Amino acid sequence: MEHAATTYDAKIDTSFQNDFYDDEGWWALTWVQAYDITHEHRYLVLAESLFTDIASGWDRTCGGGIWWSKSRDYKNAIPNELFISLAAKLALRTQGAASANYRTWAELDWNWFHSSGMINDRNLVNDGLSSNCRNNAGTIWSYNQGVIVDGLTDLYKLTGQHDYIDSATRIAKSAMSSLTDKSGILHEPCEPMCNVDQTQFKGIFVRSLVSLNQIAPSSDYLQFATRNANAIWYANSNLHHQFGLRWNGSVDTVDASRQGSALDCLNSAMRLGSKLDG
Questions:
Q1: pLDDT of 232-242, one tens digit each?
Q2: What are the coiled-coil residue ranges (predicted)?
Q3: Residue 250 lies in a domain
């Protein structure tokens, strides 16, 4: 965790806040994880500070929810999914009134998200809402499915209410069957021309299956992760064990985003019990 400490020390004076609430959400979840590993309270304090700023992005436009950015021109899935997960994680790591406040926020935002229309009739999350507060039929990204699955498992851990796991299971299984190519390999709509953010998305989804499987085990998750991990290892790896964008194809370009996404899948497959060859 030396890198976490170095990053913290380098930026703490200038803050990890910016104009986009989803960016702040990713940072906050990173600091929660740093706290879990090191038990250094300063990381939890930073996550709580970021939470406070993100919560200021909530208003009653479209009935509620966090805006994507501080310009307040788009309400979409990812900042709210991250906020739900963050609020639930903080509730599980704090006590008393603070924990109760985080739980209230997690439940409030999920209740809004669930009723907002962003989850379509296929149990998949579209990108966001239109200006008239309807599902905008935006791109169905794999990471939007994964982040809300993770948030719902956190809500279950917090409350013990099985409705959260039921929703997570529906979304996860719909994504596994709908967001894949003919070989059952996870595929983003932008492939092969994804940007540096989009190349990371698939790993985030597969990673969420680990937390879901811990609560509601299913062999489907192991089979899915193993199939994708084998594709990465045998079809999408070069001699240096570097990985590309298309998990069922040859390596295109090597970068940290592609590598991280593939490693998320490989690690998740092993955590789910896969015995990968090679």
A1: 999 999 999 99
A2: none
A3: yes
Domain that holds residue 236: 181-278
Tens of pLDDT along 22-60? 999 999 999 999 999 999 999 999 999 999 999 999 999
Contacts of 194-201 spanning 24+ positions with Cβ under 8 A: 194/245, 196/255, 196/257, 197/257, 198/141, 199/245, 199/255, 199/257, 199/258, 199/261, 200/143, 200/257, 200/260, 200/261, 201/141, 201/142, 201/143, 201/146, 201/261
Its pTM surpasses 0.85: yes
Task: Tell me if 21 is assigned to some domain.
Answer: no
- Whose tokens are 């926020």? That residue is 105
**CA-to-CA distance for 132 and 56, rounded, in angstroms?**
22
Does residue 274 lie in a domain region? yes
Tally the residues of the chain.
278
Residue 186's DSSP bridge partners are: 180
Helix (H) or strand (E) holding 210: helix 201-215
Which tokens go with 187? 């595929």
- CA 253 centroid distance within chain: 24
Task: For residue 129, count CB atoms less than 10 angstroms from its CB and return exposed for 0-12, middle for 13-18, buried for 19 or more.
Answer: buried
Q: How far apart are CA 190 and CA 97, in angstroms?
A: 44
Q: State the first-to-last Cα distance of the chain, in angstroms, to the nearest integer.
A: 29
Domains contained in the chain, number: 1
Q: Quick check: helix, strand or coil at residue 159?
A: helix
Cβ pair 248, 234 in contact under 8 A: no
Q: Return the sign of the alpha-carbon dihedral for residues 96, 97, 98, 102.
A: positive
Q: Which two tokens stand for residue 163?
A: 């409705």
Cα gap 6→266, rounded to integer Å: 27
Query: 251 in a domain, yes or no?
Result: yes
